[in-house]
Design a protein that fits this description.
The structure holds 2 protein chains of 2 kinds. Chain A is built from no helices and 11 strands. In chain A, the strands form 2 sheets. In chain A, strands 2, 4, 5, 6, 9, 10 and 11 form a 7-stranded mixed beta sheet that branches. Chain A has a 4-stranded antiparallel beta sheet with strand order 1-3-8-7, with no helix packed on it. In chain A, strand 4 and strand 5 form a beta hairpin. Chain B is an all-beta fold. Chain B has no helices and 12 strands. In chain B, strands 2, 5, 6, 10, 11 and 12 form a 6-stranded mixed beta sheet that branches. Chain B has a 4-stranded antiparallel beta sheet with strand order 3-9-8-7, with no helix packed on it. A two-stranded antiparallel ribbon of chain B has the order 1-4. Classes of the chains: A mainly beta, B mainly beta.
Chain lengths: 113, 113
């Protein structure tokens, strides 16, 4: 039972490079989220999606783009990485009805040098 | 907008001692509150939640939290901690629909033998 799977688990980027983080869930959840975790700041919402083909901005969206072409996948893109984007990124998913619980992936540790 | 304050960034405690991790939230008409736990190098897992009803909620591993509306608090307690409880604990509240979570900064619980 995979749950929420994030790819890759670790990555080092040079400033200005681009990359895409992949999140896949196998629970048929409507809602998906991308958070970043920074020391002393908890987790902050970057973007979220309430269904296939929809996306919306969260608390800290600048410098990121997202896409949800398939219900089970939620991609987070960095077009031109900056050192301020060094963080641990977590994807989460949750059902539209019946539960308020969010299910988290294992995280992607990204370092921008 | 909702906000969550965790008053202690680190809590050291000896094994079998009691512990309280404090959480305060900004006032709202209705509030759904959560405690998530993050073990080292892992994603977040739901520990317990308050949606409505009894103000005292319990987890399967001995933690409990009490919703106190007058003090806008949702403190997490355990009467006797184990080494395995060493982790980071996040208090969170749903804000703005679609089950989007606002997290506190986290409290690192370190249980010493």
């Amino acid at each position: 039972n995979a749950g929420v799977t994030q790819t890759p688990k670790f990555r080092v980027l040079k400033t200005g490079q681009s990359m895409t983080l992949l999140c896949a869930q196998d629970m048929n959840h409507e809602y998906m989220y991308w958070y970043r975790q920074d020391p002393g700041m908890g987790l902050r919402l970057i973007h979220y999606s309430v269904g296939e083909g929809t996306t919306a901005k969260g608390e800290v969206p600048d410098g990121y783009n997202v896409s949800r072409l398939k219900k089970q996948n939620f991609l987070l893109g960095l077009e031109s990485a900056a050192p301020s984007q060094t963080s641990v990124y977590f994807c989460a998913s949750g059902p539209e009805m019946g539960s308020t619980e969010a299910f988290f992936g294992q995280g992607t540790r990204l370092t921008v040098v | 907008a909702q906000s969550v304050t965790q008053l202690d960034s680190q809590v050291p405690v000896f094994e079998e001692a009691p512990v309280e991790l404090r959480c305060n939230y900004s006032s709202s008409v209705s509030v759904y509150l959560f405690w998530y736990v993050q073990y080292p190098n892992q994603g977040l897992q739901l520990l317990l939640k308050y949606l409505s009803g009894s103000t005292l909620v319990e987890s399967i591993n001995g933690f409990e939290a009490e919703f106190n509306k007058s003090q806008t608090s949702f403190h997490l307690r355990k009467p006797s901690v184990h080494i395995s409880d060493t982790a980071e604990y996040f208090c969170a509240v749903i804000s703005g629909g679609y089950n989007k979570l606002i997290f506190g900064a986290g409290t690192r619980l370190a249980v010493h033998p």
